[in-house]
Amino acid sequence: MTAGASGDSGGSGGSAVPGIAGIDHVQLAAPPGSEDRLRAYYTGVLGMTELTKPPVLAARGGCWFGAGSAVLHLGIEEDFRPARKAHPGIRVTGIFAYAKDLQARGAEVVWDYDLPGHSRFYSQDPVGNRLEFLEPTPLKG
Questions:
Q1: Would strands 26-30 and 70-76 be described as parallel, antiparallel, or unpaired?
Q2: End-to-end CA distance of the chain
Q3: Helix (H) or strand (E) holding 137
Q4: From CA 37, how far away is CA 133, in angstroms rounded?
Q5: Of the candidates 117, 122, 120, 121, which has an alpha carbon nearest to the alpha carbon of residue 137?
Q6: DSSP of 14-82, one letter per residue?
Q7: How far apart are CA 141 and CA 137, in angstroms?
Q8: What gap in Å lies between CA 31 and CA 37, rounded to an integer?
Q9: Number of helices (H), then strands (E), in the chain
Q10: pLDDT tens across 14-72, in order?
């Protein structure tokens, strides 16, 4: 039986078929003591808003950020290694102006033209995590 095929509503009281509805957030790791640098980058450079963590989770360190439907959690990891291949793909609008703004704020922008139907670039947060920014573009026929 496939997921959602049982007809069990999972206790939600709704009539929706159970299954994946979307991605709630993406978590990246960060080294201990990096929260101030992360806040400066994700709010000041990327323009995201810091989200309030529940107190029990705030005690663990790290930060949460959101913009539109994108939510990123930065969790503290003692043996931190930046994600250099794995990355969130962050959908943006006005990608060329956004990239120019990021560069003016000191962020590196590396364009990649290999994904048909998209304009995209990569950057890194202050602890070295890879981030992809992309915007769909009409395919030329």
A1: parallel
A2: 41
A3: none
A4: 20
A5: 117
A6: S-SPPS------EEEEE-TT-HHHHHIIIIIIT--EEEPPPHHHHTT--EEEEETTEEEEEEE-TT---
A7: 12
A8: 11
A9: 3, 8
A10: 668 999 988 999 999 999 999 999 999 999 999 999 999 999 999 999 999 999 999 99
